[in-house]
Structure formats: C-alpha cells, structure tokens
Amino acid sequence: MKKLPLILSVVSILGVAFLLIWQFTSHGDKEVAKDQAVEEKMPSGNIAYVEIDSVILNFDMYFDLRDDLMAKQQSSEAELNTRGRQYESGARDYEDKVRKGLVTRATAAQMEQDLLQQQQDLLTLRDQLESQLLEEEQVMNRKILNYIYEFLEEFSADHDYDYILAKSFGSPLMYANDALNITDEVLKGVNSKYNKDTSNQ
C-alpha cells in the first residue's frame, strides 16, 4: 500500500513530462511550418534600387523642362509687373486729379470703381498664372517620372531584374544594401536614351 502513492507520483511526473515534450515539439513544428510559409511568400528574384531623387535631379530631361517652365514663369511675372505698373499709374493719376479737384465727384467715383476693378482683375490674373504654373510643374514631374519608368522597363528586361525599387528620403524603403544600388548606371542609361531621342526629333 505504501508503494501506491509513489507509483502514482511517478506516473504523474511521466505524464506531465510527456505533455511538456509534446507541447514543445508540436509548437516547434508549427514555427517551422510558419517560417516556411513566410519564406514562400517572400519575393524572390533579382532586386536592385535607384535613388530616385538623384536620378531626377541629374536627368537632362529635367533641366530642359525646368528651363521651359522658368521661361513661362518669367513671362508670367513680366505680364503681372506690366499690369501692376499700369494699375499704380492709374491710382496715382486718380489721386492727383482728386487732390487738385480736376474731376467731378461722379467722375472720381467712376475712376475709383475702375481702379477697384483693375485691382481685382490683377489679383485674378495672378491667381490664374500661379495655378497654371503649378499645373505645368505637376505635368513636368509626371513626364519625367513616366520617361524613367518606361526606361526602367527596358533596363530591367535587359539586365534580368525582377524588381527595381525607388529609394528616397521619406519613402517606404528605409534601408537597402549599397551593393544593390544601380543609380549611376540608370542615370547614365536614361540620359543616353533621352539625348538620342531628342536628337532624332
């Protein structure tokens, strides 16, 4: 009878040990299976990246389109300055005539109304020109990116890349191995293609 509790204790210890071993080995199998599933979902293939800001800011197309945009901006500023000088001249003329009493009150009121309308037209023109320049800049940026994307499609096919990522400050790509950096090669290639395309036009 005294041996029964001892036997029960041994059986209990063996049972607990079996459960622990089973729990840890089955959990390990689940971890291995999970790791294999993650590996299967991870992209495979040749991957590279470009520092997209460096490509854009050193791309000949960027300089050409930027020069066109700056010429339009200077033209807009010249037009605004001319209209502004006309308004200032009209305002001085109005003040001078009113001060000297050279116009009737009705004429002065009409001149003032014309000046207010001219001022409003000037502000509207300024807003329109700013809006046009902003839209032109957005179109310019899209043209540049589109050209680079089209080049990268050809480039990746020629160099057997499955993925070419864009790295820039604030982009989702936080870190990449420098060995995968093909920025210089892409910049050289895209400039060569652009210069060839423009010389054929």
Task: Describe, in plain words, how this protein is organized in 3D.
Mean pLDDT is 85; it is low at 37-43. α3 runs antiparallel to α4 (105-159) and α4 crosses α5. This protein has one domain: Skp domain (Protein Binding, DinI Protein, Chain A), CATH 3.30.910. The N and C termini lie far apart (106 Å). 79% of the residues lie in helices and 5% in strands. The chain is mostly helical. The longest helix is centred in the middle third of the chain and has 55 residues, at 105-159. The protein has a two-stranded parallel sheet.
Jot down its keywords.
201 residues, mainly alpha, 5% strand, two-stranded parallel sheet, Protein Binding, DinI Protein, Chain A, 5 helices, rod-shaped
**How helical, in percent, are the residues?**
over 70%
Radius of gyration: 37 Å
The number of strands is 2
CATH superfamily: Skp domain
